[in-house]
Design goal:
Elements (H helix, E strand, L loop, with lengths): L1 H13 L4 H19 L3 H41 L16 H54 L9 H29 L8 E4 H18 L4 E4 L6 E4 L1 H17 L6 E8 L2 E7 L22 H7 L5 H11 L5 E5 L3 E9 L3
Parallel strand pairs: 2-4
Antiparallel strand pairs: 1-3, 4-5, 5-7, 6-7
């Protein structure tokens, strides 16, 4: 009995916002009906009782409906807050709560997107740590193996000692490159990359980088060619960061090419200079193209192991070019080669 009474009071409390309106309507009805039908005091009293009872029943029903709606809102908010599996279609409220329904749906969609993003970030972090540990393990184990072999007696063998030390040194250099790339990508993705842009002659700049990399190209009997539409044009950018872009792109072109020239070309593109690095190497499959700028992604894992590289170069290129208001694009065909293109703002 007490429970039912409390429930009835609760239902009425949900409808209390309408009390004032019902009182005013009932008073108005009593006055109008009394005037029209010249009701006696007893009739006015009976009419008042009927109206009051009717109003209480109506208020009870309204309160019951509102209570159910509010309880549903509360349960939906609880489900959304705690990430329970519900669908947008399940968020359906009474027509009186249309605005609340819209807001709840928007909140639910935003919450689902946040959860999906958090899962993607968590997976990306897991993948990144897994890739880093794998990439670090390879040179470290190699260095350890060569040093252990030397310590176990090979150091006294003139036929192998120097070769083992040179191999250990090569792996040490590879490890240093990997660590530098990891530092770079970490600073870039955390927003800590500092840019010091200036205007500089792009033709002279490219020639300087080509001179540095020519010896590596010569080792594979490859020729580095340059084509400049204007040798005097100035571009705006951070020279150190843009050098990273060129070194990564040209080094990749050398790494994955066995013949043909590697062409570094500039073209006029209205207010910008279009820069491309083209090779005639093994190329990239259409399926792999969308992923080439992902960290540690390798198109051909077997070949990547033999030719080296950290798997971070193109990811760094992507971030640096985007920081310069550009976008790195790639066109490639398997067996035909690849062309990487980006733009830099030029001085007018």
């Amino acid at each position: 009995m007490v429970s039912n009474h409390n429930n009835n009071v609760s239902e009425l409390s949900f409808a209390k916002i309408f009390f004032k309106h019902f009182i005013l309507i009932n008073l108005g009805l009593i006055v109008v009906l009394s005037f029209l039908f010249n009701l006696s005091i007893v009739e006015v009293f009976l009419l008042s009782c009927i109206l009051i009872i009717s109003s209480l029943i109506l208020l009870f029903l309204i309160g019951l409906n509102r209570r159910k709606s509010i309880e549903k809102i509360d349960s939906l908010i609880f489900a959304i807050k705690n990430g329970k599996q519900i669908s947008v279609e399940e968020i359906k409220l009474d027509s009186n709560f249309e605005l609340v329904e819209i807001n709840l749906k928007e909140m639910f969609i935003k919450n689902q997107e946040d959860i999906a993003n958090m899962k993607r970030l968590a997976q990306a972090r897991t993948d990144f740590l897994g890739n880093v540990s794998h990439e670090l393990r390879t040179p470290i184990f190699s260095i350890q193996g060569f040093l252990e072999t030397l310590l176990n007696g090979a150091i006294d063998d003139d036929k192998v000692n120097r070769r083992f030390i040179e191999k250990a040194m090569t792996h040490t250099k590879n490890l240093n490159v990997l660590l530098n790339d990891l530092i770079d990508i970490s600073m870039i993705e955390s927003g800590q990359m500092r840019m010091l842009p200036t205007y500089f002659n792009i033709s002279e700049f490219i020639n300087g980088i080509v001179e540095e990399l020519e010896s590596i190209a010569d080792d594979k009997h490859l020729k580095l060619e340059t084509k400049f539409y204007d040798k005097e044009v100035l571009v705006f950018g951070d020279k150190d960061k843009i050098k990273q872009v060129f070194v990564n792109l040209i080094s990749n072109a050398i790494r994955y090419s066995d013949d043909g020239p590697i062409i570094i070309e500039t073209k006029d593109n209205n207010s910008k200079v279009e820069i491309s690095v083209k090779d005639f190497g093994c190329g990239i499959s259409e399926m792999a193209l969308p992923r080439v700028f992902e960290r540690f992604y390798r198109v051909d894992k077997a070949r990547s192991k033999s030719v080296g590289g950290t798997g971070l170069g193109l990811a760094i290129v992507k971030h640096i070019t985007e920081a310069h208001g550009s976008k790195i694009e790639v066109k490639s065909k398997v067996g035909k080669g690849s062309t990487f293109t980006f733009n830099l703002r030029k001085k007018q």
